[in-house]
């Protein structure tokens, strides 16, 4: 069968809603796009442990500490499922990790902002996990089997993350004047960076059209961002919090909240490595990788010994 016929058959499978599995034929470009997106996603989960991890030792109660520990561990797990899913496309873990550590790979812009107070932990759970769920519920229906299956489980865990975040946000918004001020300040600092998580406007998004054609994404960056705004503005107002956007206005006709323009210079600056915490985040990841060398070495040695024993026994 010619490459063109294979590509046509592949597109028909996608259009019929079939799932593509690792051993199936796929266009090279589909494979490359998935490796790019899934490895960036895995890196985001792992780097995403750092802003909240920063507060584990300073959690205000044992209950909050247990929840936060569990949440941060979940993010590590998400990174591992996603690295494994990326391996099914032929990209080795070593390769994709090297790309991250050498600064060649991207990860989500949101994790390059500092967590200045405990209220940031609440707001990350509510807004950042809230944004992740909206994006990832769509990806749970993506055409690539290992990615969509990983997303189903990840979304369940992210739902718990969002609930614990919103519960804390609501408590602080109903708390002392100092707590109310802290939580509003955190919302003011995280709102716009969270809107940036969805990526550039559709007309400036070079990858969207191809990803939609191949059923990896089924909604555009702007469509997902609008769903996020519609849901989270209501949730903010329900607990008496303000959204830091003077242009925010409900449109009765479209039944959507209209919002102001994102500062795209800030977004691209962060993506290019010049955000407030980019250097710090990469330094921490490189140190963690270096400090974990002996663990990887021990695991390799253990696997080698197991192999030898099996060979002897057979
Ligand atoms: N940050 O053409 P598009 C989480 C890049 S996980 C940095 O629109 P696409 C869980 C983009 O890569 C959060 N770079 O790209 C958690 C591309 O560059 P490239 C991560 C960004 O792929 C919660 C260029 O701009 N989620 O939060 C960003 O169609 C709490 C042009 O963009 C995922 O990764 C950005 N925000 O759409 C963990 C989900 N946006 O590669 C801890 C999977 C865009 O061509 C605590 N990924 N860029 O050089 C996706 O859904 C998509 O890849 C998008 C971007 C929506 C991120």
UniProtKB/TrEMBL annotation:
Q: Please give the residue ranges the record annotates as the region Disordered.
A: 1-22
> What parts of the sequence cross the membrane?
none
What Gene Ontology terms describe where this protein resides (cellular component)? cytosol
- Top-level taxonomic group: Bacteria
Query: Is rRNA processing there in the keyword field?
Result: no
EC number in record = 1.14.13.149
One GO biological process term is:
phenylacetate catabolic process
Keyword Oxidoreductase assigned: yes
**Gene3D superfamilies according to UniProt:** 1.20.1260.10
Which GO molecular function terms does the record list?
phenylacetyl-CoA 1,2-epoxidase activity
Annotated keywords: Oxidoreductase
Q: What is this protein called?
A: 1,2-phenylacetyl-CoA epoxidase subunit A
Task: Tell me the classification of the organism that encodes this protein.
Answer: Bacteria, Pseudomonadati, Balneolota, Balneolia, Balneolales
Q: Which gene encodes it?
A: paaA
């Amino acid at each position: 069968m010619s490459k063109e016929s294979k590509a046509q058959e592949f597109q028909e499978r996608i259009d019929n809603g079939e799932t593509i599995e690792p051993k199936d034929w796929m266009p090279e470009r589909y494979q490359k796009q998935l490796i790019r997106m899934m490895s960036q996603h895995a890196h985001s989960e792992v780097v995403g442990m750092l802003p909240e991890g920063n507060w584990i030792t300073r959690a205000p109660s044992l209950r909050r500490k247990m929840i936060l520990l569990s949440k941060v561990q979940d993010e590590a797990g998400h990174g591992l499922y996603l690295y494994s899913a990326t391996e099914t496309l032929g990209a080795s873990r070593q390769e994709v990790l090297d790309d991250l550590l050498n600064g060649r790979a991207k990860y989500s812009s949101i994790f390059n902002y500092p967590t200045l107070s405990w209220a940031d932990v609440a707001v990350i759970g509510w807004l950042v996990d809230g944004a992740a769920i909206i994006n990832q519920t769509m990806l749970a229906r993506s055409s690539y089997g290992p990615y969509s299956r990983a997303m189903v489980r990840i979304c369940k865990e992210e739902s718990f993350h969002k609930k614990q975040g919103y519960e804390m946000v609501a408590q602080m918004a109903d708390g002392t004047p100092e707590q109310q001020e802290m939580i509003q300040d955190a919302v003011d600092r995280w709102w716009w960076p969270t809107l940036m998580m969805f990526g550039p406007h559709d007309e400036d998004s070079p990858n969207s059209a191809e990803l939609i054609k191949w059923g990896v994404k089924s909604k555009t960056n702007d469509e997902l961002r609008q769903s996020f705004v519609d849901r989270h503005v209501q949730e903010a107002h329900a607990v008496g919090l303000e959204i830091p956007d003077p242009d925010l206005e409900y449109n009765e006709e479209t039944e959507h909240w209209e919002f102001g323009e994102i500062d795209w210079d800030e977004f691209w600056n962060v993506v290019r490595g010049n955000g407030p915490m980019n250097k710090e985040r990469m330094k921490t990841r490189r140190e963690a990788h270096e400090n974990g060398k002996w663990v990887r070495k021990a695991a390799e040695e253990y696997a080698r010994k197991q192999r030898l024993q099996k060979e002897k026994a057979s």
